């Protein structure tokens, strides 16, 4: 039996994988993501409309309204962003 393998096949990231990737974009090491850092992360992940998506994600996940996604808010960010079906290639 022969298997067909598609080079363009991809699988969705798990929430754990997505969180790990997003944490890498904390460029200044303060333990929080700024909207700019998140926008850059989304852009590098290949998401379209990354600025708009970063704004929406912040609106949803920045519970204390300080303009950053902290460690406690990261779970909400990941849950929200994982609905977009971010995939590995």
TrEMBL record:
Membrane-crossing segments per the record: none
Classification via Gene3D superfamilies: EF-hand
PROSITE patterns: EF_HAND_1, EF_HAND_2
Annotated Pfam families: EF-hand_1
Domain EF-hand span(s) in chain numbering: 13-48, 56-84
Key words of the record: Calcium
Single GO MF annotation: calcium ion binding
Statement: the UniProt record of this protein carries the keyword Calcium: yes
Signal peptide, first to last residue: none
InterPro entries linked to this entry: EF-hand-dom_pair (IPR011992), EF_Hand_1_Ca_BS (IPR018247), EF_hand_dom (IPR002048)
Protein name in the entry: EF-hand domain-containing protein
Species of origin: Nicotiana attenuata (Coyote tobacco)
């Amino acid at each position: 039996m022969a298997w067909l393998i598609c080079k363009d096949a991809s699988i969705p990231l798990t929430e754990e994988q997505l969180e790990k990737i997003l944490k890498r974009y904390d460029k200044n090491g303060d333990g929080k993501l700024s909207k700019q850092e998140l926008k850059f992360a989304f852009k590098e992940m290949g998401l379209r409309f990354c600025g708009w998506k970063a704004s929406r994600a912040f609106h949803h996940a920045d519970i204390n309204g300080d303009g950053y996604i902290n460690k406690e808010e990261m779970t909400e960010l990941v849950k929200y962003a994982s609905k977009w079906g971010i995939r590995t290639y």
